[in-house]
Amino acid sequence: MTLVIGLMSGTSMDGVDAALIRFNEHEAPELLCSHSLDLPPPLLRELHALCQPANNEIDRLGRAERQLSRVFAECCHNLLAKAGLDASEVAAIGSHGQTVRHHPDGPNGFTLQLGCPSTLAALTGIDVIADFRRMDIALGGQGAPLVPAFHQALFQNQQDRAIVNIGGIANITWLPASGGSGEVVGYDTGPGNTLMDAWCRERFGCNYDDNGQLAAQGQVNQALLRRLLSHAYFNQSPPKSTGRELFNMVWLQGHLNSLDPISDHDVLATLLMLTVASIADCVSQHSANAQLYVCGGGAFNGELMHQLAQQLPNATVQSTAVLGLDPQWVEASAFAWLAYRHLQRLPGNLPAVTGASRAAVLGGRYHGR
After folding, report:
1. 242/167 Cα distance (integer angstroms)
2. CA atoms of 170 and 344, how far apart (whole Å)
3. Phi-psi category of 152—alpha, beta or left, where left has phi over 0 and alpha has psi -120 to 50?
4. CA dist 37 to 87, 169, 209, Å?
């Protein structure tokens, strides 16, 4: 038996999720305990600011990374206390880090996740596996999404399935029935919650739209929706991944400036439909009758889930909870799994998904003991 902690702080920056996973050979990974910790508001504001180029950002980035590492360590300590475990009982922490840049294309493509693994290892006394994405990029891949390999390991069965993670950015994993000749497909579909959250912060003074209640008060503006969906990314063939570099408030505001004034609620309703329509289009390309399972923060947005079911009337739309894993903990569990793969010296990427030239062991190990 091996115990591993997975740490995830996604594009939405809605907090740090920690999942304690038990691995037994020839058995499915088991979620034993979980914990979430909000980011301190000053650090949260700085992380949002660091997602865009600005003055003195290297110094600011360095300081923010150390602060973030202390938050990661606190989250791990809280998780261990909740589970009644000592740090010595945990083999490793798999830390995704906080993405602030993702430019994977071209000969000098790169991705950057904050969270100093050495600091985390020193504060917890546990070995840390981190920096999962850059080896895939070094091999010519996108470095994302990495979760499809975990989705395949945990969720693939005798029926075709689609797993959609709706975090700040949304991604799809198409899992063909096991034993067949079909290949796992995965890629980012486009914005998940990132634009909706940014609009809520700017116009409604809240970090996110709780259960989609604000969006439900608006009407989709079809002219704006058409403009947003005209982005070249949506017609790009995979492998592909994206982030705030493409889908951000500057991009949105540019489209709004070209249209007659639209109410704040209508803009939010349209942004929700942008997420829904881009996901539904990708699902439909694989099957109109898909079994669709949603994880990530979007699974808790009732309006989004309702609209997704409306856009896919012949599909079954549910959360991953019905498959035995609460949608909040899927990504943290995935990075525990990737850390376990590293410990076993096993590949963690799917080249058909990311575009890497080969499968590879992902991440680097930072010793805490």
Report:
1. 12
2. 29
3. alpha
4. 19, 20, 19
Helix and strand numbers, DSSP H then E, in the chain: 13, 12
Are the beta carbons of 290 and 315 closer than 8 angstroms? yes
Q: Report CA Rg, the chain.
A: 20
In angstroms, the first-to-last Cα distance of the chain is 20
**CA-to-CA distance for 213 and 126, rounded, in angstroms?**
42
Indicate yes or no: pTM above 0.85: yes
Say how far apart CA 231 and CA 158 lie, in whole Å. 36
Per-residue pLDDT band for 180 (boundaries 50, 70, 90) equals confident
Strand (E) or helix (H) holding 9: strand 2-9
Give the span between the Cα atoms of 241 and 131, in whole angstroms: 17
Query: How much is the pLDDT for 25?
Result: 87
Which helix (H) or strand (E) segment holds residue 213: the answer is helix 213-216
Q: Which residue(s) pair with 238 in the sheet?
A: none
Q: Are 169 and 13 in contact (CB under 8 A)?
A: no
DSSP assigned state of 236: P
- Token pair of 46, please? 């700085």
Phi, psi for residue 314 in degrees, rounded to 5: -95, 0
Question: Of the candidates 158, 271, 229, 195, which has an alpha carbon nearest to the alpha carbon of residue 11?
Answer: 195
What is the distance between the alpha carbons of residues 333 and 320, in angstroms, rounded to a whole number?
13
Using CA atoms, how far residue 213 sits from 22, 55, 210, in Å, is: 37, 37, 6
What is the rounded distance in angstroms from the CA atom of residue 307 to the CA atom of residue 303?
6
Would you state the structure tokens that stand for residue 13, as one six-digit string? Answer: 């920056």
Q: Is the pLDDT of residue 26 over 90?
A: no
CA nearest to 340, candidates 200, 132, 34: 132
Burial class (CB in 10 A: 0-12, 13-18, 19+), 230: exposed
255: amino acid identity, one letter: H
> Residue 33, SS3?
strand
